[in-house]
Amino acid sequence: MSQDHAVHAPGQVAGGWRPGDPAAGRQFAELGELPLERGGSLPDTTIAYETWGRPNAARDNAVLICHALTGDAHVVGPAGPGQPTPGWWDGLIPAYLDPTDWYVVAANVLGGCQGSTGPSSTAPDGRAWGSRFPAITIRDQVAAEAALADALGIDRWAAVIGGSMGGMRAIEWPLLYPDRVATAVVLASTGYASAEQIAWCAPQLAAIEADPHWHGGDYYGTGEAPLAGLGIARRIAHVTYRSEYELAIRFGRTPQGDGRFAVESYLDHHAAKLAARFDPGSYVVLTRAMNSHDIGRDRGGQHEALRGLRSRLVVAAVDSDRLYPPRLSAELVDAHPAAGPLHLVKSPYGHDGFLIEVDQVGQLVADVLH
């Protein structure tokens, strides 16, 4: 697998941002000790974030955008030193979320690898956390975002918006902090990780952990990293992000001169891209966090959890999504009828439609906020 080491700090093998790299648009909040849902705490927690616009005098115009598994805080803007990729939701800001009206915040998730504390970060003993990084949940990620909101002086979000893993956080926000969210917008997501979603994650985790360069999660500083395993994980995942129809129309059975089918080359390309910018340890930690997702856990089930929801809930699904199928989004609406109706994003692209169909999603966001 080819790797673009140009985005790495000197001597760094795995992708991801490290102290000493250019900050680019990142800002950093030092949040101190963060208690964790499963017990214990994470000391000296840092969250990297980006912002657009400014808080108004009433401080009631703040919007939080929550990224998906391999996203980051860089919602819009170009690539550059310290920022290997352009914004993952380019077109949303300013066309549908105008910074002259809204103070938009996006944070790199807890456990991530783009400036927030994760397994590649330095632990108190001066070594990378590696295998010692605690098992975190979606609720822990939201708690970290709440601590960031405190640091920014934001008592209440006008909206929390997220798709996929970001949608998991968007629905958890008003359940954990019922007085701090006016509207939660949940895109291409679910109230719980389903058996099939967990099953798709299983071979991805196995591929990384079976890589001989995994070293039990403690590959940091060895000059090696499980990039082959990460690439396999990405290939598996990327098939679930797209629809069968799109792959058939776009690639069919077209061969290439090197002996690969065009669709194989496409998957190889995405595997190499991810290996150049993402840390395998974060991929494992965040995948397991997604598997933990269940808004009904310790709340009497999904219906009971949503019974007392005080925030407005807006739910949208992608009609061709086979990873987070519309029926799971419909379950949220059925459990909380005030959220209805279910909004459908029409797209041939599958799960990634929530990122690609910017005009449909952006119009929904604009309608919610005005």
Automatic annotation (TrEMBL):
Annotated signal peptide: none
Localization, UniProt: Cytoplasm
Primary enzyme class: transferase
Region (Disordered): 1-25
Pfam families: Abhydrolase_1
Catalytic activity: L-homoserine + acetyl-CoA = O-acetyl-L-homoserine + CoA
Transmembrane segments: none
Residue ranges occupied by any AB hydrolase-1 domain in the UniProt entry: 61-355
InterPro entries: AB_hydrolase_1, AB_hydrolase_fold, HAT_MetX-like
Keyword Cytoplasm tagged: yes
UniProt keyword list: Acyltransferase, Amino-acid biosynthesis, Cytoplasm, Methionine biosynthesis, Transferase
Binding site for substrate: R234, D352
MF-aspect GO terms: homoserine O-acetyltransferase activity
Annotated active site: S164, D321, H351
Gene Ontology biological process terms, A to Z: homoserine metabolic process; methionine biosynthetic process
Pathway annotation from the record: Amino-acid biosynthesis; L-methionine biosynthesis via de novo pathway; O-acetyl-L-homoserine from L-homoserine: step 1/1
Gene Ontology cellular component annotations, sorted alphabetically: cytoplasm
EC number: 2.3.1.31
Protein function: Transfers an acetyl group from acetyl-CoA to L-homoserine, forming acetyl-L-homoserine.
Quaternary data: Homodimer.
Protein family (similarity comment): Belongs to the AB hydrolase superfamily. MetX family.
Xref: PANTHER family: HOMOSERINE O-ACETYLTRANSFERASE
The protein's name in its UniProt record: Homoserine O-acetyltransferase
Name of the coding gene: metXA
